[in-house]
Specification:
Helix content: 55-70%
Number of helices: 40
Largest sheet: 8 strands, parallel, barrel
Low-confidence stretches: 1-17, 112-142, 625-631, 967-974
Number of strands: 10
Distance between the termini: 29 Å
Structural class: mainly alpha
Radius of gyration: 30 Å
Strand order of the largest sheet: 1-2-3-4-7-8-9-10
Length: 1000
Amino acid sequence: MSPTLERTDRPFNVSSTSDVRLRHRLKVVEDLWESVLRQECGQQMVDLLHELNPMQAEGGQAPNLKDSPVVRKIEQLDLNDAIRAARGFALYFQLINIVEQHYEQRDQQKANVSNNLTFTEESISRVESPIEEFSELANSPVQTPERGTFGSLFPQLRQLNVPPNLIQKLLDQLDIRLVFTAHPTEIVRRTIRGKQRRIARVLRQLDRVEDGLHSMGRTSSLEAEALQEQLMEEIRLWWRTDELHQFKPTVLDEVEYTLHYFTEVLFDTLPQLYQRLQRTLKVSFPHIDPPSYNFCKFGSWVGSDRDGNPSVTPRVTWQTACYQRNLVLEKYIHAIDSLSESLSLSLHWSDVLPELLESVEQDRLQMSEVYDRLAIRYRQEPYRLKLAYVQKRLENTRDRNLSLYHAEDWRQEIREVNSIPVYRSGSEFLAELQLIQRNLFETGLQCSELDTLICQVEIYGFNLAHLDIRQESSRHEEALNELTEYLQILPKPYSDLTEAERVEWLTLELQTRRPLVPTELPFSPITKETIETFRIVRLLQQEFGTELCQTYIISMSRQASDLLEVLLLAKEAGLYDPATGTGTLQVVPLFETVEDLKRAPSVMKDLFELPLYQVLLTGGYGREDSSDTPLSPSLQEVMLGYSDSNKDSGFLSSNWEIHKAQKALQAVSDPYGVKLRIFHGRGGSVGRGGGPAYEAILAQPGRTIDGRIKITEQGEVLASKYSLPELALYHLETVTSAVIQSSLLGSGFDDIEPWNETMEELAHKSRQHYRSLVYEEPDFIDFFMQVTPIEEISQLQISSRPSRRRQGKKDIGSLRAIPWVFSWTQSRFLLPAWYGVGTALNEFLREKPEEHLKLLRYFYMKWPFFKMAISKVEMTLAKVDLQIAEHYVRELSHPEDRERFAVILNRITEEYHQSRELILQITGHTYLLDGDPGLRRSVQLRNSTIIPLGLLQVSLLKRLRQHGKSATPGVIHSRYSKGELLRGALLTLNGIAAGMRNTG
């Protein structure tokens, strides 16, 4: 019943071993899925799913659905059957995802040795068995290193004669930071994720067995049959598990969910990333030193981002830090236990340096109980004895950390002197490991297991991930307004001051040592929480070190005073010292809307002009006499928001304004000697800045990277990037390669002024057309609320944060970008990621059709920014299905609104066809995604099977919204309760999100 590859609108070429294996495995999983549904629901349900799956039109799109028998069948379904059908399709989509990810990982594992034959559908059909398919593929030629990998990058740099000293300089300052965000749109329960991982493990086992069978010329075995039975069992257990979250997750639930990627995958993956870079670098440039172990680090907003989320309290942030430390300590304890098994060296056969014996003696004085217990056993094994002391100290550190996690008063707990030996920091633990490593080296030995652990400690320390604090700018203004009114120190309310007056007063206050905030806080709860946030940051730095939490992001930054307000509140908490001009908290503006992006350079220039701020960036007064400064000197981080700028102005305008802002910020920073680290606030979907990271990084202005970048990793993309080790390793490798390549091989096309003028014109026209619909069309808000599932999405228990910045308002401005994009994705419009592009291109081409088309094609060939933008639009248009979208409009619109909504639908339809036609002209493609057959296959595979699920969603939404409209009090007019109908609708949201591999 599933969409087989033969149904696509043109032949699909199998280009690798994994494509053939994928085809084979999809068939196996589909058969198992049908068997489970037959056992659980009966043959009638399987027949129903076959009946509901219509043939798609060209490109995997839905056929004309008006008066469709499939639609009529769905409308007549009993609610229980509708829900079971929705669950069946949703399960199928998620099984497809698992299989695809599994074979993506296989591709990465065999990237340098995989085969590269191209097969036609006809040649595949002649092969009678999977074993024969694999035999044909086994004799194919070796593939060259894939673009975006180290194996491709370093030979390219050598071939281009890039000076080794430039490469060395870049690697020495390489600084990549990936930040897991605090508002995951992860719609899949963690329970379900566990089942997905188990199925992935069974698939790996099945591959190994089938590979073995292939080598012996066999096609089946009892072991293979047993593994298929295990798959069947896992799918049945999944079917009987509720897909919906049982309750709204707390912030700490989100913390636990997000950090499991570290424990399951990333803890072991980052050392492999370093080793892969080191090995490939040595082949091309044997005399260049690799970067530091921790060139790639992770951060998190989970448990620390309080912008619009009242659930993130100081206590929650404290517990988040303790939770992170506990996870990494448990990892180290396990690693030391394993290391002790390896380092069984005896004094009879191996020398030991005096410094190790002295260290063991010092440990004996502090931990006599360990000596009493193990001295006889390890009397001739000094490494094991040393590691026993190390492990005990780690266990003590963990136990102390747990008491801090549970303590009601952390301040009192921190003050208490703990007599048991603990590690106060990761650097103390690292020093002990390096002592052991040094002893081994001096006696002619090396231990790779120890080397890996040292690498992990340098990367993760005792904190696992850096915590960024984020708050909205108006909160700081409100706090200072209340504070100054209470103290009666200003002639008029702070909020009434002009920007110049604010900057003048804030600068003066930042230079005085007099406290401004009283110890007790006689203020409103919101102001008290704002002040307490800075106090908890101070406590975090005292307990965990400044490296844990030294970034404070200000969303909706619009002027210099927004940053100075935060700096003043930081000063009051002891995070900035006016006497020395130093601070342990970096203030980071987040420019989000298009207008804010345009203002960003002038805001930063105003700050850089302030002597006080210059001193802070350069490390304080008299820095020339001291090399020990809390923050990196002359480094300013600036965050650019993709989500709100896109919602504000549309895709093309948003991306261009961000591109321009980076160049302008770099130009502003250079004269002051300030280094920039741009923080890209990318979402998971194209409408929020998402898409392939490699191409996105290469599309940035080269000089704005210079080896430094920071990027958000949204909750919805974590599973697709980090659920499997090789997928994570490949993703991190491509990000690193892109940063190095962009920094060393900038194209220079970003600086061609006529090209920039053309893009400015296109972006302006696109913005105008987008805003004319979204913000100026009076009927648009009603259209959006009725024809998308926005109201139902707000009832999904998937995030601790509200869906709107200001509750109670029904406008576009107050709606967060995540549910905004999620709604358009569900209804298959995907409008935020492409609307306005076609009109802008068409108006430009009308001026000089042939000349301008040649120019745009040249842009696409040569300019990374333009190619990235066009490619993202092409991918999104391939996912749009106007037949499904029209069905949402036709069925969910109120009868009295259908005529006015038809006008809006016509505008959207015309823009889609215009955009599609022009994108194909620019790319030279005959079909959308012609240039990426793997992605095209994946999109078409989903587009077709997702059709009936969209129809089911519309039917259930219609029933839900009509429920009780004409009800008489005390009389039930529906067979089903509103709760049952809502549950059915929410299940379809889950299913479509899985099918589209996208939420918001």
